[in-house]
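Quick start: what a row looks like.
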Amino acid sequence: MSEDWNTKYGTRRVRRDPPTLDEAIFAAIGITDDLEAQAEIAASLMGMPLDAVLAEVRKIARSSSRSATRVIAGEQGAQRSIVVERRVIRKFGNDKRTGT
C-alpha cells in the first residue's frame, strides 16, 4: 500500500518513524538475554553496523545490571524480598448524595 490513499473521508497518510536505537535495544532485550543476539536484532531493526550497536547494548546492560535488583539483608545475612504496591483510591464527585 502506498503512503497516501483515498477513502470516502478524504486522503489518509501513514506516518512511518523508524525506531530509535534505545527502542530497538529495548525490543531486543525482550526477545533474548544474549548480548550478541540483542545487538544483531537491534542492528537489523535500525540498519546500523553491528559494532556500533554492540557498544550501546553493552553500555545499557552494564547500567541496568547495577540497578535492577535491590536486596536487603536482615538478621544473620538472610535476604528478604520487599514488594511495594500502590493502592489507588478513587474519589467521585457525587459522594454527597441528597436523601429522598
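That is the whole record. Helices lie at 21-31, 35-46, 50-67. The first helix runs from residue 21 to 31.
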